[in-house]
Write a structure and sequence with these properties.
Elements lengths: L1 E2 L2 E2 L10 H33 L4 H29 L5 H35 L6 H22 L1 H6 E5 L11 E5 L9 H37 L5 H36 L9 H26 L1 H4 L5 E3 L10 E3 L5 H8 L10
Antiparallel strand pairs: 1-2, 3-4, 5-6
Helix pairs in contact: 1-2, 1-8, 2-3, 2-4, 2-8, 3-4, 3-6, 3-7, 6-7, 7-8
C-alpha cells in the first residue's frame, strides 16, 4: 500500500524485488532534476514575465510550487527505495510524508480550481476587474493550502519511524519510514487501512473528477453558444486548452495509482501476488511524472510560455564590440520586452 506518492511497504522479501525498487528510485532522481528545473522556470516566468493578473496564472503558480516541494523531497524517497532503509532520521521521515500528502491534495485542489476558473471565465457575461480577480484568486489559493494541510493530517498521524526487521548489517540500527495503523486500535488494522485509502481516493480523485467533469460539461455548452471568433475568444480558447491539458494529464497520471491502492487494500488475496510490487511501483512512477510534466504542457500549447524559454547566449555572428547578445526567436516576447523595456500585460495570458 502507499500514502501520497510514497511507498509504505515494509520491504519484506526484498531479494525478489530489489531491481524494481532500484529502477524506480533511479528514475526518481531523473524526475527530480527535470521537474525542479522545469517548475522553477514556470515560477520565474509567471513572477517576472507574465505576471499574476489572472486567476489562472495564480493557480498555475501554486501548482508549480506544490510540485517543486514534492520533487525536493523525492530525493529522500529515491534513496529510500534504492537502499531499502530510511537513513535520514525520524524528523525528515515525518516531514517527508507530511509534504508528500500536502502535495497530493494541493495538486488535486488546484487542478480543480483551474477547471472552475475556466468555466467561470467563459460563462460570465462581464469580467471582474483585474485587481479584484487577483485578490480573489490569492484568497482561494490560501484556502486551498489550508485545506490541503488539514487533509494531510491523517497522513502525519499514521507516519511511523521504526526499526527494520530487514537488517542490512548484523545488529545494525536500520529504520523504515512507513504508514502504520496498528496503533489506531479498534476496529483493527484492516479497517483503518481501508478507511484511509478510501479517504484518499474520494478526496484526491473522486471529488476533483466530479467537479471537473461538471465544469467541462458546462464549459463545452457555453463555448458552443458564445462566439469565439474575436481575439478575446482566441485567448479564451488558448487558455482553456492549457487547462484541459493539465487536467487530463493529472487524471491519467493519478487514476492508476488510486485505483491500484483501492484494489489492493480491498482484496487481501493479492497481498502475496508476485506482480503486486511491479504494478504498484509502475502506478507510482506515473504520479512522479505528473509533478514535472505540466511545464512541458504550458510550453507546448502556450505561445506566451514558449516565448519565454531560456535564450541561448552565443558568440560568433551575434558577437559585436566584445559583447554577447541573447539569441532568441526574433518575434519572441522575451526579446521584444528587452528591447522596449516592457513587461507582458496581456490580461488573458497564461
Amino acid at each position: 500500500m502507499s500514502v501520497g506518492n510514497a511507498t509504505e511497504e515494509p520491504y519484506e522479501d526484498m531479494s525478489d524485488h530489489d531491481w524494481i525498487y532500484t529502477a524506480t528510485g533511479s528514475f526518481s532522481y531523473v524526475v527530480c532534476v527535470i521537474g525542479l528545473l522545469a517548475n522553477t522556470w514556470v515560477i520565474w516566468v509567471l513572477l517576472r514575465r507574465l505576471g499574476l493578473k489572472t486567476a489562472g496564472n495564480m493557480y498555475i503558480l501554486n501548482l508549480a510550487i506544490a510540485d517543486d516541494l514534492f520533487l525536493a523531497g523525492l530525493v529522500l524517497q529515491a534513496a529510500y527505495q534504492i537502499k531499502n532503509v530510511w537513513p535520514f532520521g525520524e524528523f525528515l521521515c515525518r516531514a517527508y510524508f507530511a509534504f508528500d500528502g500536502l502535495n497530493m491534495y494541493a495538486s488535486a485542489f488546484f487542478v480543480t480550481a483551474l477547471s472552475i476558473e475556466r468555466y467561470m471565465a467563459v460563462s460570465r457575461s462581464s469580467r471582474a476587474r483585474l485587481h479584484r480577480k487577483r485578490r480573489q484568486a490569492a484568497a482561494v489559493s490560501v484556502v486551498i493550502w489550508m485545506a490541503s494541510i488539514v487533509a494531510a493530517v491523517p497522513t502525519l498521524l499514521a507516519t511511523t519511524y521504526q526499526a527494520s526487521s530487514y537488517q542490512s548489517v548484523p545488529n545494525g540500527t536500520d529504520h523504515l519510514c512507513l504508514m502504520d495503523f496498528t496503533s489506531f486500535g479498534h476496529p483493527g488494522l484492516a479497517f483503518w487501512s481501508q478507511a484511509f485509502i478510501t479517504y484518499n481516493f474520494v478526496l484526491g480523485l473522486c471529488v476533483p473528477l466530479t467537479v471537473t467533469c461538471f465544469c467541462y460539461g458546462r464549459l463545452i455548452i457555453q463555448m458552443r453558444e458564445v462566439s469565439m471568433r474575436s481575439e478575446a475568444g482566441a485567448d479564451v480558447k488558448r487558455v482553456t486548452r492549457i487547462v484541459t491539458g493539465v487536467v487530463v494529464v493529472f487524471f491519467i497520471c493519478w487514476a492508476p495509482f488510486y485505483l491500484c491502492r483501492m484494489i489492493l487494500v480491498y482484496n487481501q488475496d493479492l497481498i502475496r501476488w508476485a506482480g503486486r510490487p511491479f504494478l504498484f511501483e509502475l502506478s507510482l512512477v506515473f504520479t512522479y511524472i505528473n509533478s514535472c510534466v505540466n511545464p512541458f504542457i504550458y510550453a507546448l500549447i502556450s505561445v506566451k510560455f514558449r516565448e519565454n524559454l531560456p535564450c541561448v547566449a552565443l558568440r560568433g555572428r551575434g558577437y559585436k564590440s566584445g559583447k554577447r547578445t541573447m539569441v532568441c526567436d526574433r518575434n519572441s516576447t522575451a526579446l521584444t520586452d528587452i528591447q522596449h523595456n516592457t513587461v507582458i500585460t496581456n490580461n488573458d495570458s497564461s
